[in-house]
Design brief:
By secondary structure, this protein is an all-alpha fold. It is 59% helix and 2% strand. The protein has eleven helices and two strands.
Amino acid sequence: MTDKKQKQISMAASAIALKGVRMFLKAGRAAVDRGSPPTKRKTKPVVPVNKIPKQSLDVLLRVTRFNKNELEALFTMYRRLVTAAQAAAPPTIIGQPVPKIDGIDQSTFRDVMHNTFDLVTEEIVLDRIWSAWDRGVNGGEGALKFEAWVKGRSVLLRGNIEEKKVYCFNVYDLNADGYITRDEMFILLKNSLLKQPGDEDPDEGVRDLVELVLRKLDIDKDGKVSLDDYRQAVQQEPLLLEAFGQCVPTRRHAATFLKTLSTKQ
């Protein structure tokens, strides 16, 4: 057999082999298109978010003054507030995902304080209330997690006088150095007082008021108010608890809120 004829036979065999491969691949694709079952992928189990984790529940039952039903009602409220805040988050740059708010953000916190507890107070006091709520290692930064949310609610709604003294003092201690100074009193009182028309130097009247309040609160007479000073002064005169702005809801508003918790079974 000549070399030319062998070469022709080899080429024909290659063509037949390639045709067979194409037919095989085509048949495989047709089988997939006809509905061959896709390969099953493993999926992670979905963890429900409508129930308090048992560990958190056990801790909160010990450190707060809420029972199990009340904690579950608070958790439902917390999840609704977080979900609403996430839905209302402003859009970001095209192509960037909307940041997820994992907790009660400051704007939501303000709305709850105003609308639920009628806490009509100065912005500086409201900012300090936000910062003073316990966030553990975060030191007052970031959104409020559920545990911090409930602990703060416990003090506001059912805290004893000692807990409320510490809470209010921390709100008024603007730089968190352990003292309420003259300068801090001036800032707090100036923001809480309405300017009277015709006052030539309203700041002078605020300074006079600072000295008056300082004499009431500064038990050890060192020119500033420590937590111990504040405790003793409020013990002698309970009205001094909120001397520099409202920090705690009224009994009526607290009772109304607690009643809503007891009805959410």
